[in-house]
Structures are given as C-alpha cells and as structure tokens.
C-alpha cells in the first residue's frame, strides 16, 4: 500500500491521525492546524488586547506546558503584543511539586519567560503539609481544593496582573458539562462553559485586589489527545504524571463517559462543549444575549479545578451516595406534600453557591411560541464579595477565609468537610464499588 | 433484575397495606405485588390529569396517539391506559379519550426491529382500541409538502420518481456511522409519528419514555450537539412539531417498568420485544456502538444504585427554558427543532475547526442544525461522510 498523503498539503506523508476528526495529516500540518485553531479561539473571542500582561498558570503538566509554548509562538507570529509570564503555585506538599516545579523552571528558561512561584504559605500562611498536620489526612483535600481555586487569582494580584490564562482543554469542559448535568447544577454548568470568566467587581479601586482578575481558557476547544500529540511532536519538556488520586465520583463518572463518547464519535467532545454553550443560554437567570460566550464573562469563583494534590480520606462514590440520599429524602418529603428546597452545595459540600434547586417538579405549562420567558425568570443568583478578602463569594465570608479561620484558631475539624464522607462505612463501601464499576463501563476499542 | 430483590424480603410486610408480604423494594419502600402495581398506575395516571372524563365533551371523543415500539415502557403504558379507560367507563359510563395505537414498521432498517406480529398480539389482548401500522419510509410521502426533509437526501434519491421505500436505504447507507444511522432513524420515526397523529386527528401523543429514558436522552442529545433543543424534547405540552407531547411514565424508572411487566396479570412479557442477543453483542464493538447505546448502559448502572440521581437529571434539564420563537423562526430540516440566530451547521462558532471550509452555502441552505449536521455531513451526497 502506498503511503497516504497528508490531507492538507497533499505532499508529505501522513503520519498523524488527528484525534478530533480522524483526518490524516503530516507532522508539520498537524502542528500548523493545532496552532491555527487556538489562534482562531483567541481572536474570535477577543481574549487578549495589546499591551496586556498575562499570567499563565504553570504546573509543568502537559496542558500548561503546551499553553505556554503555543501562546509564545502565536504572540510572536501574530504580534498580539502581550506580555506573558509564568505563575506556579506550590501547595507545600513535600516531594509532590519538586519534579513539576523543576520542569516549570526549565520551561521558563526555554521560553525566556519570567517565572514566579508562590507557595500556599505565602498566600495563606499555611503549607498543605502543615494543614495535614493540623487537621489530619481526612478532609485535607477540601482545603487543598478551596485554596487552589483562589491561589492563581491571589498570586496574579500580587504580581499586579489582571489576566490569568489556564490550560483547561475541551475534554475538561465536556466532562464538566456532563458532570453538572449529573449533579443537577445548571448555574455551574453555565459558568464553566464560558471561555472568559471574571470576578466582576469594577468597584474595587485597589489595583492589588484579586477581585478584578479575568480568567480565560485558550485551549477550550483543544482535545487532550491533540495536546499530548503536540507536546510530543514539538518535543516539549513536560512533567507527565497522571494524578494518582481518583477524581470525585461525579467527575470520574463523567470522565469515563467522555472517553467512551470520543471512541464512538470523535467529534463528541466538541459537540458536548457546543451543547454546553447553547444550554448556558437556556439556564434560568442567565443573560440570554450572552450565554457562554460573553466577553465580559461569567463569575469565576466557582470554577472547577480538576485534580488535587492529595485526596486521602475521600470516599470514592461518597459524593454520589450523599447526593442520592439527600435527593431520596426530599422525594419522600415532596410526596408527603412538603415543600423542599435543596442546594447542590448542601449535597456535594463543594459548590458553595450553586443556587437553589427547587425539587418540586415544576411543570412547564407554558412553552408556547408567544410566551415571553422573562416573566418566569427567577432572580439572578446573588454573588457578593467575601467581607475579609474580597474574593467572589455567595457567603458573607468566603470558603477559604472560613477554613483559614478554623486553622488559625487551632480548630482541628471543620464542618465543611462533611460533604465528602458517607454516613456509614458499609454504605460508603458499597457505593464505592458501585461508582468504580460505573467508571469501568468501558467498551472495547477496535 | 427487576426492582431491588433484597434478601430476606419475604419476611417483610408491605409498607403500604401492612398486610401482604413485600415482593420488592421500591425507592426504599418494601411493597407487595398489588401495592406495587397500584404505585405504577398512580404515577402514570397522575400525568394524565387533562384527559379526565369531565374534560371531554360527551358528543366528541378526544383521540390520542400511543406509539408502540414493544419495548418495556410502551407495552406497560398500553396496559396501564387500557386499565385506566376501563375504570373510567365503569365509573362514568364513558371514557375521557380514545387511544389510537400506532406501530412504526422498521423492518429491514436498523438493528433487530420488532416483528409486526406483536401488533396482532396486542390487538388480541387489548381489543378496545384502534390499531394502525405504517412503514418508516412513508415519512417521505407524508411530509411531501415539506420539501426541506427531502432536500437532505443524497441527490440520487431525492429524485421524485424514486419510491420512498428505496429512498430510506439510500439515505441510511450514505451515513458514516452507527450513531448517525440510529440518530436519523429515531428522528424520522418521531416525525412520522407526528405526521400520522395529525392525519388521524389525534390531539396529542403519549410517549412511553421512563425517567431513565429521559435522562438517557438528556445526555445523548447533549453528546450529539443538540443541547439547544432539550427544552423541546423532554417537556410535557405543546411540542416544536405542532402537537402536544405527553410523557405519562416520566416519574417511573426503567427498572420499575421491567418489574411491572412481570407482575402484571397476566404477564406482559409475551408482548415485549427483546432485541436479539447477537444484535446486543454486535453493539458492544465500538464500530457499531451508538451514543444512545452508551447512555443506555450508563444509566442502567446509575439507576441500580442512584435512582434519585437519574430523576434529578431529568428535573434539571426540565429547568432549561425554551427560547421564545415565532412563526418566522427557522427550523432544522431534519429534526425540526427551532434554530435561533441562524446557527445552522457546524461552522461559525468558537469551536470551529480549521478544516479550510468556510461555512458553506450548501450547509446553510440544507438547513440542518448543529447536531443533524454531525449525523448528515455535507459530503453524504457523494457517499463520503467523515
Ligand atoms: Zn501536510
Ligand atoms: Zn475570603
Ligand atoms: Zn401492599
Ligand atoms: Zn436538527
């Protein structure tokens, strides 16, 4: 059989089957097309403006390494005129970041970009190792997750940078869309699909305030598999370890589903992202005209961060089991004629401001053409600011500050971690088995 | 498989009548056979409020269409409604509505379609209703005025002289994947049922979808890029196809209906079409697996341990709001869902692929929504789907 020519240049020999659409490309054309699509994402969404200083969240992993490499290339090629810097967060877990931080340091040299490494101790006064010492291994994951969510914003604020880009890719977004459907969290579904998120507090005049940080995801439409391919073919220096900790049950379950969908129809990841964007416009209380693509962006505080440095003590499946229990109780109560409201936050212990989800089965009585939707809109979700640190929060005091207060008062445990633990161990175990089975529903690849 | 057969259940008494011994546990409640059957009927009939006897004029019988696929759900629904109509009649001397049972014959199309002989069996068992059967390909005849559906056909088959029975296989053969074929078959089936309902002067359609099925549909349509259409696809009420849709089984899980089929007296299992084993195994290789298959498998396992999460998915997607549409809002030529802002085709959005193709005019003029364009890519006319 003669070698297949590249589908784009028709000259070189095709060596790569493109994961996104299974087209056969040569190496040069693949790299070209991968970069061009990200350029398209950046320009079509007007992500950057000339003169802007942009911090790239750098973990040494494939996503952030590819992001740094591509943005550097595109900034030079298309003269975006932006200043790119690397920002790394060190959770302060002995041994955990050593290799990845070394990678980031090499990247900084390779790309000639300034690098700042900020530790949890500098940002919060506590390293994760100290937190574990204080609260024990059980539940420390909560701290890590909450601290991590704010760390980049806090770090950027210290550097006087107003824009942080992260390496979230299409797989991450698709996974989050399915995950939020599974746990019934439409407000968060709508937030995570936006390419730009920001903490809208124009009122703050303090330039160091981390409430004005804009976040964007230039790799939003890039497939994880293509990111790996790109890193490979460009011989990028990245730190490849899979997170050894299992993701929470809903995410793990959604991730397995995404992988299977990709096998059945390669475009499915992109298609889920598209559905997520479209559905964001239909979420009650959302701004119809802007949906998931508004340049002003959605609030960022609740954004998902995948992976965690340490998830000891987390019960696999506990999250789903807890939610199931809550929902079942409420179904029962509803049947008995009680009005019940439940927040997703109360269930997962994670989404502290996901809005209320009335469990009453509200019938869609009016879905007629002429019917104006506006009248039925529930009030917009109220997003305030933390009274201590100013971070976007639906509570008076944000979660990080609550946790910090607990730590600082030398209190060993905090109520917040309840969400992760199943009520009784037997139950938790059977649920764990059930969810790991869910994750294992795999089909054979051909 | 049916319900949760907990060990030691025989010693438990039914939580509702407190008399008989329980035969299965339904959402934490141990129930006896009678109470379980009552539970299923109550859940379904509660969704039929608008079809009560007092809502129908004595001189004009209201007609509703019940499409039957001979799956567990539609067979259950037929049994429940048959029983319900008999009860109405014995109580008031008349019924609130009449049922027209429609079977779409898809012989030779798709995987292991049900045998038409099952229709005779149903007729025998529930003789009081009107029964009708129609081959799937007649959708091309029924929508003859709606030429947009014909425009999606590969050029050779849109030829008017070609009989519709030959158009369908040409269309399906032009599709590149099992997912696309299953998707198109389902959509054509829905459109045929709608057209037939209008022709038979039915005022609405009763779909058999269980909670589990609606959850599957939510995620499957999301995965196919039709998230925009969800509010139209799973809600009760006036549909985008100009006729009312109702889902009386929306509060029942698939596993509950599986149990119901067994416990109905006499059993409904002879009426249920089981796809052949080989068809099932075939579907497990990724070449033949469809997105719908994946979601079915997925929710089967979720339902086993987390039934309330399944219903919560349906409740959640039910909260998505429909965008207001007017008579001028364009519809997709295939699935007929309203497409706002002219967002046809797979190009012209942030996730555009740089495949060197400008949003082509043909893509737009074909008027397919994002999801339908994935199933029927523009190349399909020359048999070169991606
Ligand atoms: Zn090439
Ligand atoms: Zn705070
Ligand atoms: Zn009983
Ligand atoms: Zn369509």
Into which percent range does the helicity of residues of chain A fall?
40-55%
**β-strand number of chain A:** 13
> Given this structure, which CATH class of the largest domain in chain A is correct?
Alpha Beta
Which sequence of strands runs across the widest sheet of chain A? 5-4-3-6-8-7-9
* Average pLDDT for all residues of chain B: 85
CATH domain fold name of the largest domain in chain B: Rossmann fold
| β-strand number of chain B | 8
Main β-sheet, spatial strand arrangement of chain B: 5-4-3-6-8-7
Are there runs of chain A of 5+ residues with pLDDT below 50, and where? Answer: 200-205, 288-315, 339-381, 411-446
Rg from alpha-carbon coordinates of chain B: 22 Å
Percentage of residues in DSSP E strands of chain B: 5-15%
Q: Do you know the CATH architecture of the largest domain in chain B?
A: 3-Layer(aba) Sandwich
Taking Cα atoms only, what radius of gyration of chain A do you get, to the nearest Å?
Answer: 22 Å
Shape of chain B: globular
Q: What is the C-level CATH assignment of the largest domain in chain B? A: Alpha Beta
String of helices and strands of chain A: EEHEHEHEHHHEHHEEHHHEHEHEEEHH
The major β-sheet of chain B equals: 6 strands, mixed
- List each distinct ligand once: zinc ion
GO molecular function (chain B): nucleotidyltransferase activity; sulfurtransferase activity; tRNA binding
Family (chain B): Belongs to the CTU2/NCS2 family.
Pathway (chain B): tRNA modification; 5-methoxycarbonylmethyl-2-thiouridine-tRNA biosynthesis
InterPro entries (chain B): CTU2, Rossmann-like_a/b/a_fold
């Amino acid at each position: 059989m003669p070698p297949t020519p590249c589908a784009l240049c028709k000259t070189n020999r095709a060596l790569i089957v493109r994961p996104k659409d299974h087209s056969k490309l040569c190496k040069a054309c693949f790299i070209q097309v991968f970069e061009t699509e990200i350029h398209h994402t950046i320009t079509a969404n007007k992500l950057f403006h000339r003169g802007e200083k942009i911090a790239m969240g750098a973990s040494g992993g494939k996503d952030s390494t590819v992001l740094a490499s591509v943005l550097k290339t595109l900034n030079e090629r298309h003269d975006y005129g932006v200043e790119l810097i690397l920002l790394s967060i060190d959770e302060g877990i002995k041994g955990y970041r050593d290799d990845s931080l070394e990678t980031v340091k090499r990247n900084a040299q390779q790309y000639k970009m300034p690098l700042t490494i900020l530790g949890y101790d500098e940002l919060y006064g506590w390293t994760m190792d100290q937190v574990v010492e204080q609260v024990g291994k059980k539940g420390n994951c909560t701290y890590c997750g909450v601290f991590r969510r704010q760390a980049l914003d806090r770090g950027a604020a210290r550097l006087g940078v107003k824009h942080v880009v992260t390496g979230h890719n299409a797989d991450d977004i698709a996974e989050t869309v399915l995950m939020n459907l599974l746990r019934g969290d439409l407000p968060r579904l709508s937030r995570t699909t936006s390419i730009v998120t920001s903490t809208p507090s124009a009122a703050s005049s303090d330039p160091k305030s981390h409430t004005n940080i804009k976040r964007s995801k230039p790799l939003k439409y890039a497939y994880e598999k293509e990111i790996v391919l790109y890193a490979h073919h460009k011989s990028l220096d990245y730190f490849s370890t899979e997170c050894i900790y299992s993701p929470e049950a809903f995410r793990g379950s959604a991730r397995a589903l995404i992988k299977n969908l990709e096998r059945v129809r390669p475009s499915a990841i992109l298609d889920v992202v598209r559905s997520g964007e479209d559905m964001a416009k239909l979420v009650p209380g959302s701004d119809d005209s802007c949906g998931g693509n508004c340049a002003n962006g959605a609030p960022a505080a609740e954004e998902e961060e995948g992976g965690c440095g340490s998830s000891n003590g987390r019960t696999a499946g506990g999250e789903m089991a807890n939610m199931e229990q809550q929902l079942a109780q409420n179904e029962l109560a509803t049947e008995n004629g009680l009005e019940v409201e439940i927040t997703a936050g109360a269930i997962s212990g994670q989404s502290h401001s996901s809005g209320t989800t009335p469990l009453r089965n509200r019938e869609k009585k009016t879905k007629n053409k002429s019917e104006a939707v506006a009248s039925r809109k529930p009030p917009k979700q109220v997003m305030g600011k933390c009274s201590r640190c100013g971070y976007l929060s639906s509570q008076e005091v944000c979660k990080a500050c609550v946790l910090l207060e607990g730590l600082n008062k030398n209190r060993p445990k905090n109520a917040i971690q309840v969400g992760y633990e199943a009520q009784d161990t037997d139950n938790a175990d059977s649920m764990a088995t059930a969810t790991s089975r869910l994750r294992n529903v795999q089909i054979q690849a051909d | 498989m049916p319900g949760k057969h907990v060990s030691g259940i025989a010693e438990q008494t039914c939580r509702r009548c407190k008399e008989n011994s329980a035969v299965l546990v339904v959402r934490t409640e141990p129930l006896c056979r009678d109470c379980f059957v009552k539970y299923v009927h109550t859940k379904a009939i509660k969704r039929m409020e608008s079809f009560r006897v007092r809502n129908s004029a004595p001189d004009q019988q209201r007609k509703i269409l019940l499409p039957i696929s001979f799956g567990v759900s539609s067979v259950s629904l037929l049994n429940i409604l048959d029983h319900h109509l008999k009860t109405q009649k014995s109580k008031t001397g008349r019924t609130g509505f009449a049922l027209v049972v429609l079977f779409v014959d898809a012989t030779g199309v798709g995987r292991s379609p049900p045998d038409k002989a099952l229709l005779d069996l149903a007729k025998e068992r529930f003789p009081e209703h009107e029964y009708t059967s129609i081959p799937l390909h007649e959708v091309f005849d029924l929508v003859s005025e709606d030429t947009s559906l014909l425009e999606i056909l590969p050029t050779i088959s849109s030829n008017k002289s070609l009989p519709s029975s030959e158009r369908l296989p040409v269309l399906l053969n032009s599709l590149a994947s099992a997912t696309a074929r299953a998707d198109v078959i389902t959509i054509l089936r829905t459109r045929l049922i709608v057209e037939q309902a209008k022709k038979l002067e039915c005022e609405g359609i009763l779909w058999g979808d269980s909670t589990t099925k609606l959850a599957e549909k939510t995620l499957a349509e999301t995965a196919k890029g039709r998230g925009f259409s969800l509010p139209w696809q799973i809600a009760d009420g006036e549909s985008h196809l100009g006729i009312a849709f109702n889902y009386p089984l929306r509060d029942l899980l698939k596993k509950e209906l599986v149990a119901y089929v067994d416990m109905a007296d006499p059993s409904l299992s002879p009426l249920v079409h089981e796809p052949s084993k080989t068809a099932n195994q075939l579907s497990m290789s990724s070449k033949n697996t469809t997105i719908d298959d994946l979601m079915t498998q997925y929710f089967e396992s979720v339902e086993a341990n987390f039934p309330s999460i399944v219903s919560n998915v349906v409740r959640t997607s039910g909260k998505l709001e429909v965008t207001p549409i007017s008579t001028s809002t364009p519809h997709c030529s295939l699935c007929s869902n309203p497409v706002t802002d002219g967002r046809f085709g797979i190009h012209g959005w942030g996730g555009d692929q740089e495949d060197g193709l400008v949003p082509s005019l043909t893509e737009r003029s074909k008027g397919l929504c994002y999801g339908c364009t994935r199933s029927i890519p523009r190349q399909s006319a020359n048999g070169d789907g991606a």
